[in-house]
Recover the amino acids of this structure.
């Protein structure tokens, strides 16, 4: 009724209830009791179309200094809510007043500070922005520069502003987010560099244990590739059992070393080769079950000094192959191999050798030098912030075979265990 009068330009309106009569001056924003002469200031006229019988609602606040009252003004809740009723009982008016107070309280602007125990990363800021959008709140980042080992040493926090309900939702989501971020940070810190996420070879069957020997089927492309490499120099060899070595610890060490070589050479990638290695009297398991993998400390000093030796051709490593103790359980019998290789004679036995992936990097070809204990220093660009820069690998030719020597145990990884028959 009063809103209609305002829209129509009426300056004075008379209101009547069951017991009282009022005169309202819209120009002076006053409500006057015609019986007692009591005047009340009208701060704002609010429509109550959804509540039949309600004519006007006038609300005042102790902190309100503006002409038009807003329930969110200065973040204060109105101290008084008055209902001017028409045809309602006192109980109905009180009920409406209590509901109105609750609505105004829920609409209040709330501000909450949430401590942030870690430094603000770009990823974290992006996630906070998403919460701000989804919860319809304002999030202000308050950063302190005091950060040690990724953890905040000061008063890093975020301030969340919005309606009471929205702020509660946003604070809950932010708290969950920060809990996950801290747990992730702590896991990464405790794991150390060897536990960093690495890409395992595409041939691996995952998930797997820390160490597994996985049988490679004889009809697979993987088996045929290895067999072809052997037949290139050992045409009478037959693979009886091919196992892929999946050692997570050794592979991480190998990958880290490869990345270090790439960084040293300022290259995105470095050369790798699949090469053969024989262990002679030492069982191959001493390599793939050893935390060092290939360990040149147990290598006899050869033509290029004390190093880990690898061959391009299987025929070279066949001379250093390990005699397999499980020969009687292999699918090929001596008679079967002799049948496949007529004229091979009876000198047929089961052997084992390793096929390794080796990081070649920068390689230098040298004549035999039994005094070598590490690759030589490069002649060009030898001085740098790292000191003398050496070649990564030494190569040479012996017995008509190309061989490669590494002087760093982490530079090679035992990829396959090959159990085979060879007729000589």
């Amino acid at each position: 009724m009063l809103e209609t009068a305002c829209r129509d330009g009426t300056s004075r309106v008379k209101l009547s209830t069951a017991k009282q009569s009022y005169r309202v001056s819209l120009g002076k924003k006053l409500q006057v009791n015609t019986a007692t002469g009591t005047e009340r200031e009208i701060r704002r006229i609010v429509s109550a179309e959804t509540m039949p019988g309600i004519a006007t609602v006038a609300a005042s606040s102790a902190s309100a200094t503006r002409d038009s009252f807003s329930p969110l003004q200065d973040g204060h809740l109105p101290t008084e809510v008055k209902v001017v009723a028409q045809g309602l009982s006192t109980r109905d008016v009180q009920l409406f007043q209590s509901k109105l107070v609750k609505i105004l309280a829920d609409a209040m602007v709330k501000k909450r500070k949430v401590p942030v125990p870690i430094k603000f990363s770009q990823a974290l800021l992006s996630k906070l922005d998403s919460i701000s959008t989804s919860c319809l709140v304002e999030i202000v980042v308050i950063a302190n520069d005091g950060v040690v080992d990724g953890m905040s040493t000061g008063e890093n926090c975020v301030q969340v502003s919005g309606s009471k309900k929205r702020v509660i939702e946003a604070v809950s989501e932010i708290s969950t987010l920060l809990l996950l971020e801290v747990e992730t940070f702590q896991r990464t810190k405790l794991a150390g560099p060897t536990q960093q996420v690495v890409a395992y070879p595409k041939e691996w069957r995952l998930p797997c244990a820390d160490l597994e020997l996985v049988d490679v089927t004889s009809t697979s492309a993987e088996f045929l590739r290895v067999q072809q490499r052997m037949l290139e120099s050992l045409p009478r060899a037959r693979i009886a059992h091919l196992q892929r070595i999946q050692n997570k610890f050794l592979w991480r060490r190998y990958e880290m070393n490869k990345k270090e070589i790439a960084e040293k050479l300022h290259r995105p990638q470095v050369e790798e080769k699949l090469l053969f290695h024989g262990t002679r009297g030492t069982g191959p398991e001493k390599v793939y079950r050893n935390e060092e993998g290939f360990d040149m400390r147990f290598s006899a000093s050869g033509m290029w000094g004390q190093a880990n030796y690898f061959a391009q051709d299987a025929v070279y490593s066949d001379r250093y192959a390990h005699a397999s103790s499980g020969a009687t359980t292999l699918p090929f019998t001596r008679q079967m191999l002799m049948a496949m290789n007529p004229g091979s004679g009876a000198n047929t036995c089961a052997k084992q050798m390793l096929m390794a992936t080796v990081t070649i990097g920068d390689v230098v070809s040298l004549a035999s030098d039994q005094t070598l204990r590490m690759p030589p220093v490069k002649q060009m660009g030898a001085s740098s912030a790292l000191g003398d820069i050496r070649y990564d690998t030494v190569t040479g030719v012996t017995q008509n075979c190309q061989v490669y020597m590494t002087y760093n145990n982490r530079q090679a990884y035992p990829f396959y265990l090959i159990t085979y028959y060879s007729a000589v």
